[in-house]
Amino acid sequence: MASSSGASGATVARGMRCLYVDLDGTLLGPNASLLRSGDGRFSHLGVRALEACWRAGAEVVLYSGRRQSSVFESARLIGSTAYIFELGCGLVLDDELEWLTGGVVPSLSAGSIHDQIEVSGAPALLLERFGHQLEYHTPWSIDREVSHLFRGAVDLDDVRAVLEQSGLGWLRLVDNGVVRAHAEQMAGLPVVHAYHLIPAAASKARAVARHMQARGYAAADCIAAGDSREDMDAASVVGTFWLVANALERDSTLESEVARHQGVRIASEGYGAGVYEAVVTTLAERGVGPGG
């Protein structure tokens, strides 16, 4: 089988040069544990997925809604030299940071991107307009660099209309999946989502595409795994996107979204086990074992 050299210089299997993987609700189990499955039991399948990528010479890139410092620590923990943070607002590649926010960048005069969004009045507008349907997702909404993080249940088309009518079309509210903890449920809302208010130019898919361009990866050589609508948009730039099973358990409406995208597959397992399934299935279908 033909092979080529990846970013690390290792020999890589054709068709599996990179895995883009979400953290919370995907690689990480409940309570952000790498070593716990959906039922709370110890599981090493997430680690085995990373090992299988390493043995095949495939790069692993974390793409997450978390702020940069948090994703940096996770990337360092697994030995990755590239990561995507704040839902694609920023890409770090071999210690070089690139903002993918359509010209909205931090500055001494304007402050952080988070500050600039605050000054625009958009967060206050949405909280006022949607009342009990939206609130800050504390404590994770504190000390962020880019996005304003909310929880609730809103119609994104309605939000888009409100922003555009107010001259704030340079921003968008992104659904980053269902909030799991019962303690974070809001009265009267049976399902609560996490939402990020970010510059409209930014997305996980755009950041993945930029990383692929920088590394010289073709779409067919890459897969992605995640648990949200925003994660699933990566299907437009990679060969295959894998939706982990727990995503549908938490939000059954996602199933209707699958048909809108080409190259989406649903894993039979959740969390790290679903990521492992995605990796070993891809390698097997390319005629390459995970090694070991």
Characterization of this structure:
This protein has two domains: 170 residues, HAD superfamily/HAD-like (Rossmann fold); 87 residues, Alpha-Beta Complex (Hypothetical Protein Ta0175, Chain: A, domain 2), CATH 3.90.1070. 32% of the residues lie in helices and 21% in strands. Strands 7-6-5-4-3-12-13-14 form an eight-stranded mixed sheet, sandwiched between helices. It has a four-stranded antiparallel sheet with strand order 8-9-11-10. A two-stranded antiparallel ribbon has the order 1-2. Helix 1 runs parallel beside helix 10. The longest helix is centred in the C-terminal third of the chain and has 15 residues. It is globular.
What's this, in brief?
This protein is 32% helix and 21% strand.
How many strands, which pairing sense, and closed or not: the largest β-sheet? 8 strands, mixed
CATH domain fold name of the largest domain = Rossmann fold
N-end to C-end Cα span: 19 Å
Radius of gyration (CA) equals: 19 Å
How would you name the CATH homologous superfamily of the largest domain? HAD superfamily/HAD-like
SS element count, helices = 10
β-strand amount: 15-25%
Examine the secondary-structure arrangement and name the CATH architecture of the largest domain: 3-Layer(aba) Sandwich
| Spatial strand sequence of the major β-sheet | 7-6-5-4-3-12-13-14
Tell me the overall shape.
Answer: globular
Overall mean pLDDT: 90
CATH structural class of the largest domain: Alpha Beta
The structural domain count equals 2
Question: What structural class do helix, strand and pairing data support?
Answer: alpha/beta
The number of strands is 14
Helix share bin: 25-40%
- The string of secondary-structure elements, in order, is EEEHEHEEEHHEEHEEHEHEHHEH
